[in-house]
Structure formats: structure tokens, C-alpha cells
Specification:
Layout: H1 3-16, H2 25-38, E1 41-43, E2 51-56, E3 61-67, E4 71-75, E5 78-82, H3 87-101, E6 109-115, H4 123-129, E7 136-146, E8 155-156, E9 159-161, E10 163-172, E11 176-177, H5 187-199, E12 209-218, E13 225-226, E14 229-238, H6 241-262, E15 265-274, H7 281-295, E16 304-306, H8 314-318, E17 323-333, H9 347-360
Parallel strand pairs: 3-6, 3-7, 7-17, 9-16
Antiparallel strand pairs: 1-2, 2-6, 4-5, 8-17, 10-14, 10-15, 11-13, 12-14
Helix pairs in contact: 1-3, 1-9, 3-9, 5-6, 7-9
Pfam families: M20_dimer, Peptidase_M20
InterPro entries: Amidohydrolase, Bact_exopeptidase_dim_dom, Peptidase_M20, Peptidase_M20_dimer
Organism: Planococcus kocurii
Length: about 375
């Protein structure tokens, strides 16, 4: 079997066996089995999922990272794990780079990081804590891009992701009979106020940002009870880490004011923070050269700013001297990332693998 077909086969396996964050047990076992079959040094961890492999010899270490977790979402009426963010493709492309490199005479070490729990925004931290980027001078990620960002055949040397964070909150008011609303403190009124408030948060339009309700849970089966309690969540994003700090402060102040206005208690916590990209010019130029070598100038797209977030950028936050960039692969991906029926051109997998392999061979 040639490498291109093997890469597609890897994709089909992981696509058919999705596992959510921190539960990627069988995925990790499959990756280990692939490494054993290829005769590649690797190790797993006793306390978390994920795997690190390495080939080559020499003092310099460059690394490639693939995220391995799937989302939990409704697909055709059934809640299930689903690889609608393309992490199955990311694994296949990084494994493909390994296939193209394993028989090369390398004057450096190439490390392959298969990281859990990207969707929770903290899986990279677990790999950092376990030495994934020790000795590493350059780090490259890879991700498919939706068609509105990049068509099939185009590859960008850098994705400038934004920052993202979740807020989980709880409202404690007072239940009341539907006929006596004045006796209660209606949590739905508070939710409506929060919705209106986050829609009125404004900063400079020259930098993208957003805040929106993504979860509401309140009330029960008795429709004549005005609910006093509710749970809610916000998804908050900004294109820079500095603006994210301002957004968090403004939202925190707003929730405090809403609680006072409605005479209820609102408790909340910020969770699963993902930093905005800190792209290395050095890594971006190396990736740019590799794309041109692999595909030609006409297929080399400029860097892309995207409102999505990725915990890949914790690697550079925690190790500022690390030269890192995430490569974006055009794949005619539709309808979009995280759509339960996400689909793309499978020929993009080999393109991504060959670009990554040429990055590793850069002198």
C-alpha cells in the first residue's frame, strides 16, 4: 500500500472510532499499535491519554502536534462522539508525515505529539507537564480549514487563532406560583437580561470579538411554576489576549449589576481558557518555504486570521522561546467545522502530510 492510501486508511479508522476529551483510550492504543508496526520509538502515559513518538538523531528537536479528541454532539438524532472538527484528519496528516520521514536520513530529531483534550482547551497543558516540548526548538500544528477561509489546494503557513473562554453561571432566585409572579424572583427574567447585556458589549470594531449564551437550563415539568433557579453558560472570544481580559472584566461587572437589579444571586466561574495565537515569524517562514517547495507559489496562501481558538497556543505561552506555527490546509470543507455532517476533500490529507514532512527536512 502506498503512503497516500495508508494516510486515508488512518483517517477512516479514526473517523469511525471517535472518542471525547480525556477518554481517547482506544485512539491512544491504535496510535501505539501503529508506532509498534512502524518500529518507531514512542511512549504513553499512565495517568492521561495521548502519545509521543520520535525519529531521527541529532541535538536539534522539532515537533509536530495532532489533537486526537472528538466532540460530543447530536448526529442524525443521536448524541454521540463525532470527529466534526477534523482531529481525525489531523492525526492522519501527522502520521502521514511520519510515513514520509521514517526512512529518511535525518540530522535532527522529529517528535510527534498526539495530544488529548484540545476541545476542552487544556490538553496541551497536560503534554507540556509531561515533557512534550522539552528540548524542542520548533513546533508545528496542522488543521483543515473551512471552504470560506481556504479552498482545496491552498495551504497557509500560519493560522492566527483568537482567544476563547467559557463562563459557567448559576442564578438563585425564588420560585413562585404562575398566578402570583410578584412573590418570586424569576430566573428567566434574569437570563433575558443577561442575553440583552452581552449583545450590548462593545469594543473597537477593528478587532473581532463575541460573547453569546450557549447553554440555558431552568424550570421543570410543572408549567405553573415560575422558576427561581437557572444555570447558564457563555462562549466568549476575542482576537487578542489583551482584549479578552477587558471582555472578561466587562462581563463580570455586568453580571454583578444584573444580580443587584433583579435582587438575585448570580455565581459564576471562568473556565477552559484558550489563548490567542503567538505566531513565530521564524516558524511561519519555514512553513511558507515548505509549502512553496511542495505545492508551488500559486498554492501558498497568506497567513489567516480566524475567530476559532485552539489550545495549541499554550505551547508558546508556556515556552516563549519556542518557534511555533499552525499550518492551515485548504480542503473544500463544508458546511463548517463542528457541523455534525462536516465533510471535506480527502486528497487534502496527503497534501498536509507532505508539507509537514518538508518542514521537518528544512535546513
Amino acid at each position: 500500500m502506498n503512503s497516500e492510501q495508508q494516510i486515508v486508511d488512518y483517517f477512516h479508522h479514526f473517523h469511525a472510532h471517535p472518542e471525547v476529551s480525556w477518554r481517547e483510550v482506544e485512539t491512544t492504543k491504535k496510535l501505539a499499535a501503529i508506532m509498534t508496526e512502524l518500529g518507531v520509538k514512542h511512549h504513553t502515559f499512565p495517568d492521561v491519554t495521548g502519545l509521543i513518538a520520535e525519529i531521527g538523531e541529532g541535538p536539534e528537536v522539532i515537533a509536530m502536534r495532532a489533537d486526537i479528541d472528538a466532540l460530543w454532539q447530536e448526529v442524525d438524532g443521536t448524541l454521540q462522539a463525532n470527529h466534526s472538527c477534523g482531529h481525525d484528519a489531523n492525526m492522519a496528516m501527522v502520521l502521514g508525515a511520519l510515513l514520509y520521514l521514517k526512512d529518511e536520513t535525518l540530522t535532527k530529531r522529529v517528535r510527534f505529539i498526539f495530544q488529548p483534550a484540545e476541545e476542552l482547551g487544556n490538553g496541551s497543558l497536560s503534554m507540556i507537564e509531561r515533557g512534550a516540548i522539552d528540548e524542542v526548538s520548533q513546533l508545528y500544528g496542522v488543521h483543515l480549514r473551512p471552504i470560506e477561509e481556504l479552498p482545496f489546494g491552498q495551504v497557509t503557513p500560519a493560522l492566527h487563532h483568537g482567544s476563547g473562554i467559557f463562563l459557567r453561571g448559576k442564578i438563585q432566585g425564588v420560585d413562585a406560583h404562575g398566578a402570583r409572579p410578584h412573590q418570586g424572583k424569576n430566573a428567566i427574567d434574569v437570563i433575558a437580561a443577561i442575553h440583552q447585556f452581552v449583545k450590548s458589549v462593545y469594543f473597537s470594531p477593528f478587532e473581532s470579538y463575541s460573547a453569546k449564551l450557549t447553554h440555558i437550563q431552568t424550570g421543570g415539568d410543572s408549567l405553573n411554576i415560575i422558576p427561581g433557579g437557572a444555570k447558564f453558560a457563555l462562549d466568549v472570544r476575542s482576537q487578542s489576549n489583551g482584549l479578552m481580559i477587558e471582555l472578561q472584566q466587562k462581563i463580570s461587572d455586568g453580571l454583578t449589576a444584573i444580580a443587584k437589579l433583579h435582587d438575585v444571586e448570580i455565581t459564576f466561574e471562568w473556565t477552559d481558557y484558550t489563548p490567542a495565537a503567538e505566531v513565530s515569524e521564524t516558524a511561519m517562514h519555514i512553513a511558507d518555504a515548505a509549502i512553496r517547495q511542495t505545492l508551488g507559489d500559486e498554492a501558498t496562501a497568506p497567513p489567516i486570521q480566524t475567530t476559532g481558538a485552539d489550545d495549541f497556543h499554550f505551547y508558546t505561552i508556556k515556552k516563549p522561546e519556542l518557534h511555533a506555527a499552525m499550518i492551515g490546509i485548504g480542503a473544500d470543507l463544508t458546511p463548517g467545522l463542528h457541523h455534525p455532517m462536516m465533510n471535506f476533500n480527502l486528497k487534502a490529507l496527503d497534501i498536509g502530510a507532505r508539507v509537514l514532512a518538508n518542514i521537518a527536512k528544512h535546513k
